[in-house]
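Notebook entry, cofactor series.
This is the third protein in the set we're modelling with a bound small molecule. For this one the ligand is pyridoxal-5'-phosphate. I'm keeping the input format identical across the series so the outputs can be compared line by line later. Sequence and SMILES below, as received.
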Amino acid sequence: MQLTDHKVRELRSQFPALARQANGREAVFLDGPAGTQVPSSVIDAIGHYLKTCNANCHGAFDTSVESDRLLDSAHQGVADFLGATDKDCIAFGPNMTTMTLALSRAIGRSWKQGDEMVLSGLEHDANFTPWMLAAEDAGATVRIADVHADDCTLNIDDLQSKINERTRLVAVGCASNASGSVNPVAEICSMAREVGALSFLDAVHYAPHDLIDVERFGCDFLACSAYKFFGPHVGILYGRRELLESIVPYKLRPSPNELPGRWMTGTQNHECIMGTLAAVDYIAQLGKDLQATATNRRDSLIAAYSAIRAYERELCDVLLDGLAEIDAIKVWGITDPSNRANRLPTVSVTHSRMSPKQLAKRLNDAGIFAWHGNYYALPLTERIGVEPDGMVRLGLVHYNTREEVEYLLSVLAAI
Ligand SMILES: Cc1ncc(COP(=O)(O)O)c(C=O)c1O
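Returned structure with ligand:
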C-alpha cells in the first residue's frame, strides 16, 4: 500500500520529460503546481485518438460514432475521478478559468441587488474575479473571508460570520496553490447549504495530491484542470444535475440542450479529453499496482491517493524541517508539525537577501525548476504583503524524490 522509492523510480520512468538533464544531473521539476509532467500513456492516448478516429461529434459515420463512444468513456473516467455518480454531470472545456467565467455569467443572471457572495482571501484569482465581475454586473455584494496571515490558512470563523440568509454563493478552493493550505470544504459546503446558498469548489491545486469526492464534499459545483494531475490542458466542471439542467448557459442555438453538451460550448479538444482519461487511468493503475484487491477504477483511485498522500507528507516533512534550518528562508504557510496534515507539499518561500526571481534563477542554475511571483493567487499575496515580487514556490508531487528534496536543501543552504 506504500509508495516505495523503488516504485517511484518505476513511475518516474513513465514520464519522458523527467529524464531531462540540467546542470549535469536529472532536472528537478518543482513546478508541478503550475502544471505537472505527463506519462507516456497520456501522450500515446492523444496520438491514438488523432490517428484512429479524429472526428466531430454525433455523426452517422464510423469514426464519429467511435469518437462519441470514446468521449463518453472519458466522461465516465472523470466521473470516477471526482466520485460523481452521473457521468453526464461532467463537462469538459479549455481550462478551469474559462469554465468558471462561463458558469459565473450563467449563475449571475439570477442575482440582484441585496444578494451576497462569499469568497475567500486564499484563492487563485480564477475563483475570485469571475464571481466579483458577475456580482458587479448584478449589483450584488461580495464578502471576502479573511486569512490568518501568520500561516496562510483560511479564517473559518470569519467565513462563517459572513454567510447568512442573503448569501447566494460560497466559492472556495479545496487547497491554496500558493501556501498549500487545505480547506475543510465539506464543512464549508454544509454552511452554504444551511442558508440555501450554492457552493463552488476550486479543486485545481488539490487534484494531484488527494482524492476528490464531490459526494463527501457536498458541493454543488467543482472545477479542476487535467494538466495539474498528469494530463493535458483540459478544464473540467462538475455540477449537480438539477442545477446544470436548470441554470441557463450562454450557448449557441444548434448546440445540445442536454447534458453534458449543454455546458460544453464549441468543438472540444477531443484528443486531449482522451489524454485526460489516460491521466485518470495512470493514477488508477498506480492504485491497482499497490492494492491488487481494488477491482474498479474508483477503488483504485482511492488506493492511489492514500499512498500518494502518505508519500508526499513524508517528502514535505523533509522539506519543511530542512527549510527551518536555513535562516535566510521564510516559509509562507503551515510549518507547525502538529498541523501539517492540513497542508499539501506546496511550499512558498522568500529569501532575506534575494528577490524571488533571483532565487528562482539561482535554483535554475542548479537544475531546479521552480516558479516565482504570485502564481495568480493575488488575493493571498496582496493580503500577506508580498506583492509585487511574490514568493518562490517549491511544489512537490509524487514523482519527486527524497534525494531531490535533499539536493534542493543543499543548494538553498549553499546560497
Ligand atoms: C488553484 C488554482 N485554481 C485555478 C487555476 C486556473 O486553472 P486553469 O489554468 O485551468 O484556468 C489554477 C492554475 O494555476 C490554480 O492553481
